[in-house]
Amino acid sequence: MMFGNSIHLKNMKVKIKYYLLFIILTTLVSCQSPKNKVKVKTFKENGVWVYEITVNDKIFIHQDCVPTLEGNKPFANKKEAELVGNLIKQKILNKETPAVNTGELRQLGIKGTS
């Protein structure tokens, strides 16, 4: 009689483990939200470099001047627009506010921030 009970207990333990694993996996899958597709594009527009950030193929930011600098100063070149655009993209992906300060611009080597 004892032998039958121990087999029954082992079977129950195995079933419980599989049930818990199923619950955990189901919870993990259901909690994952769809990822936003964030892209950065740089181009010249009206003689100045621009970066544009799209989220799920919709324009989210269109920036034609260096943010936070007075006087709407344009980006000096394509590289500057790309650097700032990529920083903003990372902030969006990290669910941070998509803004930059002069210290961040200085770290990127953006002209006019020293």
List the helices and strands and how they pair.
Blueprint: H1 2-31, E1 38-45, E2 48-55, E3 58-63, H2 78-93, H3 102-108
Antiparallel strand pairs: 1-2, 2-3
- The structural class is alpha+beta
Fraction of residues in β-strands: 15-25%
Alpha-carbon distance between the two ends: 84 Å
Biggest pleated sheet: 3 strands, antiparallel
How many individual domains?
2
Total helical elements: 3
Please provide a written account of the structure.
By secondary structure, the protein is an alpha+beta fold. It has 2 domains: 1-32; 38-108, no CATH class. It has 3 helices and 3 strands, in the order αβββαα. It has helices at 2-31, 78-93, 102-108, and strands at 38-45, 48-55, 58-63. It has a 3-stranded antiparallel beta sheet, with helices on one face. The protein is rod-shaped, with a radius of gyration of 26 Å.
Structure keywords:
2 domains; 46% helix; three-stranded antiparallel sheet; DUF4907 domain-containing protein; 3 helices; 114 residues; alpha+beta; DUF4907
Short description:
This is DUF4907 domain-containing protein. The protein is built from three helices and three strands, in the order H-E-E-E-H-H.
